[in-house]
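User: I'm new to structure prediction. If I give you an amino acid sequence, what do you actually give back? Let's try with this one:
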Amino acid sequence: MTQAGNRLYCAVSGAGPDLVLLHPAGLDHIFMESLAQRLSADHRVLSVDLRGHGRSPDAPPGTTLGDLADDVHETVSHHCPDGAAILGISLGGMVAQALALAHPRSVSALVLCGCTGTFDDALRPMLRERGLSAERDGMAAVVDATLDRWFTPAERHGALARATRERLLADRVENWSATWHAIAGHDALPRLGGVTMPTLVVAGELDQATPLAAAQRLADAIPGARWACLRGAPHMMQMEAGEALSNLAREFLAQAREGQS
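Assistant: Good question. You get back a string of structure tokens that encode the predicted 3D arrangement of the chain. For your 261 residues, that looks like this:
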């Protein structure tokens, strides 16, 4: 593991074409580990801790998704001078969109999972409230609702959800709140027509956080983007549907490389 460019911490594994993994809000690279293990069979995988997460620096108030994308750009430039494929889940998928728009030379392909391209204005105060609620009452006030959105009923009280609960309860409130304020400002959709790299949008059939229609709208906004729905998968698809997700991503990335050769 290494901290690249004196900024973001990341775990590096495997060999082959470079692939960067970006995690959901409140988590870190550890919660991408099983996906990284699968994909490192034929990729050099960099699993990043975004700003305000894991072992990376804190996220100050006012942090934007653009700031998070700039951090990732610095990390990719440090490790992958020729760019890398980016796979992001939830928050990670939003950061990947911002990265592709601001630093397209850093991105060879996109896999956007469990995320949308924008939010209705009426929803933005609700997203900020997820951070403000934690500021008022601590992380315990937001954990149960978060787990309800993220996992299937079958896994809601299982080992994966328990580990996620422990991670969220250990988060600094300030980082959680800054992250949700950044998410509330997400509005990439009007600019996504300029994205030119191969893109796959992945939705979870049982995702309670990102409706299928929102994922479809994201795919429709990106020229030539593919769209896929993982049957039985919730928002945390990398945990509950990791094998299916890795197989889908591996097939898409191989086709993308063939098309670019």
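You can read the tokens as a compact description of the fold. Here is one thing that stands out. The chain has a mean pLDDT of 96.
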